[in-house]
Each structure stands twice: as C-alpha cells, then as structure tokens.
Amino acid sequence: MLLDISRLRTVVVDVNRRVEPEAFADLTDDFRVAGPTELVGTVRREKGTHVVLHSRVTSAMEVTCGRCLESYVVPFSADVETRFVPPAEFARVTAETAAKAGLLTAGAVADDEDEEDEDIEPVAEGHVVGLAEYRDEAIDLGDVIREQLYLALPMKPLCQESCKGLCPVCGANRNRETCQCQYQWEDPRMAVLAEWKSRNEKT
Ligand SMILES: [Zn+2]
Ligand SMILES: [Zn+2]
Asked: Cα of 170 to ligand 2 centre, how many Å?
C-alpha cells in the first residue's frame, strides 16, 4: 500500500484507496478486519522534505465480546493527519512536535510566547495527528490504516451494554436462551459444610 511521492510537489493531490481485508490477514490480534477499508484524502509536500497526508479512514472490525464470547462488528471512521518525514529528520521533528504540545498544554505560557507561531493549529476532536517516517520516496498507507485499527479497538469489547454473558454452569448464552441453572455464587467451603450438616442430620 505504498504511495509514490517522488513527483509530489506542494500542489494538493487526491488519494483514494480501497483495501480488501485480506491485506490485514497478518494482524493476529484479538480482531480481524471485517470488510473493505477506505482511505480518502489529500497529500501534499511541505518544507521540501515533509509530506502531509490528510485522510479519513473508514473500516469495520470484528471483535469478540468479553462477556458472551460472540463476535460482533464495530464500524469506525477516523480523520487523520499524518506528517511523513525522512528518517534523518524524524528525531528532530518528533522533539519539536513534543515541545509544541508542551506549550499548548501550558496554555498561559503559550499566550506569552510570540504570536507569530502559526504552525500550531487547533486540533479538532476525533482528529488524530501522527508523525511517521518515509523511505525510498514512498509513504505507507497501510501503516496509517493499521494504526487507526489499533486506536479504534475497544478496550473492553461488549456486543451490547446489557450483554448478559454466559451461564457459568452450562455455558449457555444468556442473551439468547434461559437455562434452569442456579448460578448464584456459593462459597465452596459453605457447600462442604452444608453437605456435612445434611449427612449428620440423617444419621
Ligand atoms: Zn456479549
Ligand atoms: Zn446454565
């Protein structure tokens, strides 16, 4: 999923890629890509060596519910701005970006600094800004997508907020069926005591 940037200039160029789920078959985590992924946006060159990609990544992934163990599909869409720099500049640009972020969080300090710094743009909510390297005059759109997949992955996947989970006794999916099991938790030590008691009462 490489995009050739060798002829890219400061003029904005459209990017439109559709990637089939098979391209992510190597992702062996707790999810799989459930349908075609689309990356739509623009790319342009900046400051000679930088390449800025604005894109919207739309995809869907299948994850497993943590309670009932059924898989379900999570659709997602993310707006991403990625600045690609050559490896030789990566460390410096990372440090600069971190310093700017520090100024932004400091707030009051940023106001006192010179107002000329137009590079700092307000970041809209749900908008991800990333920094990446490029090699051999090509940027890897696959990496941009992969990163978004991981960011969109739910921390505690639940098929529905009210998922009833599995019966701890017979394993039935309690969202779909009602079993007759008693699944109140009983202290195993109490169970032993109860058995001992009933045995002694009989004798
Ligand atoms: Zn569930
Ligand atoms: Zn049961």
From this structure: 4
Q: Which ligand is nearest to the CA of 182?
A: 2
Query: Which two structure tokens, joined as six digits, stand for 99?
Result: 């310093």
What separation in Å is there between the alpha carbon of 106 and the centre of ligand 1?
42
Task: Identify the domain boundary among 132, 152, 172.
Answer: 152
CA of 60 relative to ligand 1 center, distance in Å: 18
Residue 73, pLDDT score: 94
Count of structural domains within the chain: 2
- Kindly state whether residue 26 falls inside one of the protein's structural domains: yes
What is d(CA 6, CA 4) in angstroms, rounded to the nearest whole number?
A: 6
Helix %, strand %, coil % for the chain, to 5? 30, 35, 40
Residue 159 lies in a domain: no
> Could you state, in chain order, the average pLDDT of each consecutive group of 10 residues for the chain (203 residues)?
90 93 83 93 93 95 94 93 92 85 62 47 61 92 91 91 93 92 70 78 68
* 188 and 118 co-located in one domain: no
Tell how far the Cα of 174 is from the centroid of ligand 2, in angstroms: 8
Query: 179 CA to middle of ligand 2, Å?
Result: 5
Cα angle value 63/64/67 (rounded, 5°): 145
For residue 201, the model assigns a pLDDT of 77
Domain that residue 19 falls in: 2-152
Centre of ligand 2 from the C-alpha of residue 176, in Å: 12
